[in-house]
Write a structure and sequence with these properties.
globular; single chain; alpha/beta; 41% helix
Length: 252
């Protein structure tokens, strides 16, 4: 009888520490924490994007004026530390504090959260967003905000050269519930257009430059009705596609 229990115990231990679990333990215990900087303009919903990925649901309150740190363990055991930067123009000093880490190779990857110009927060003057008496968004509002996205890239893009050890850069095109009916032109802008022209200069030292559509917004953009063809399943598919790629990049 004791011999039977012995072998049952051996089988139980084997199942507990099968290869998948051993891989998880190895990555969690012995792999270094992967530090990821999250950039994006104020109103791009950087923190809401992260809470969507972390599975913590809706967040409340105003955007932070300080750098925030959020941690996440991937399904393969890798630990990620997201360093979320404040996006407001007046808070550049907080973003600049990460310069040394970027230059010294202490940053594994960058996530830049954009939204095709659909910036909106508690302080947004809606008269500058919509045409009078309608929910039609002013073209100049989107144009000016897309320029702000490009201008902010200049803050950090020049720090990344051939000597940096940056492994990847992901662009998250957030607020897909607003622009999804223009998805082809929107994604082309970030994958091949003016935005890509701005970031492709780092391709010699960063082989993985990618772009994903995303929707983390709980409330409609400035209370504008959401598009009916943006289903909850489509949102989940976007979340899963990004997460799967994050797992792949973490193992590089």
């Amino acid at each position: 009888m004791s011999e039977i229990w012995f072998w049952r115990l051996i089988v139980a231990i084997f199942k507990l520490f099968r290869w998948k679990n051993l891989k998880w333990i190895r990555n969690r215990v012995f792999s270094p924490t992967l530090r990821v900087v999250v950039y994006g303009e104020s109103g791009a919903r950087k923190t809401q994007f992260l809470y969507t990925i972390l599975g913590n649901g809706k967040i409340a309150g105003r955007p932070s004026q300080n750098i925030e740190h959020k941690k996440m363990t991937l399904e393969d055991g890798h630990l990620l530390e997201f360093i979320v930067t404040p996006g407001h123009k007046s808070l550049r000093a907080a973003r600049d504090s990460l310069r040394r880490d970027l230059v010294n190779g202490k940053i594994t990857g960058i996530i830049n959260v954009v939204n095709y110009g659909y910036l909106c927060n508690e302080d947004t003057d809606l008269s500058k967003v919509f045409q009078a008496g309608t929910t039609n968004i002013k073209a100049e509002y989107l144009r000016d905000n897309k320029k702000r996205e490009l201008d902010q890239i200049d803050e950090w893009i020049n720090l990344i050269d051939k000597d940096c050890k940056l492994k990847w850069l992901i662009t998250i095109v957030n607020k897909a519930d607003v622009w999804y009916d223009q998805r082809d032109s929107t994604m082309e802008y970030y994958r091949q257009g003016a935005y890509y022209d701005k970031i492709k200069v780092i391709s010699p030292c960063c082989n993985n430059i990618e772009c994903f559509p995303f929707c983390s917004t709980i409330h409609p953009f400035c209370d504008k009705p959401m598009l009916l063809d943006m289903s909850e399943q489509k949102k989940r598919d976007m979340h899963q596609a990004f997460y799967d790629e994050l797992c792949r990049l973490a193992s590089l």
